[in-house]
C-alpha cells in the first residue's frame, strides 16, 4: 500500500518513498513464488485518531501531572514561553503533547467508541491477511527524514507508524538508501501477530540487496587511546 489515500492534514507520500517501496516489492516479486498484491485499507485514514483514543484510554493520569511528578500543576503557557527561550526543564514536544492530552480528555468518551471498534477490525483484517508468513509493505513516514522539530507542525504524519503500535503487530523499519536531497528514507515491514521473525527476515533481505542504512554525511572517526589497567 503506497499511501493512505490522502488526508487534509497529512503530507502526501513523496515520489521517492513510493519509488523505494516499489523497488522492495519488485525484489520480493522476483524471488517469491507468491506475487505481491496491492491493497487499499480505508481504515488507515483514521490512524491518528484511533491511536490517540486508545493511548488515552490506557492512562488515567494527565501527562501534564506526570512530567512534574504530581507535585504541582504544569503552567502550559509559561512552559511554552520558557521552552522557546531554552529555559524549560521539559522538551517542547512533550509540552505540546501534554496540552493535547488535556484537550482530548474533555471529549465525551462515547465519541471514542467507533475508533476502538475500528482498531479491533483492523487487527482482525491484518491477521487474516498476513497469517504466519505474510508481510505488509507501507511507508514509515510520507517523506524523507525531517528536520528536528519539523514534525511538530505536521503531527498527523505519524499516523503511518503509530497505528501499528496499538494493533500490537510486529514492525521492522527498513532503510532504503538516500533521497534526492541526500536524506535517509525507508519503508516499514509489518507482519502478523507474533511473527517478528518474518519482518526481520524480510528486512535483512532488503538490506542485503539495497545496502541498508547509508550515512547522509561523512562520519569522522575520533582517535581514542585506551589505557590498560592491570
From TrEMBL:
InterPro entries linked to this entry: AS_sf, FAAH2
GO molecular function, one term: hydrolase activity
Secretion signal span: none
One cellular-component annotation, GO: endomembrane system
Keyword hit for Zinc: no
Gene3D superfamilies the record matches: Amidase signature (AS) domain (3.90.1300.10)
Keyword annotations: Hydrolase
Protein name per its UniProtKB record: Fatty-acid amide hydrolase 2
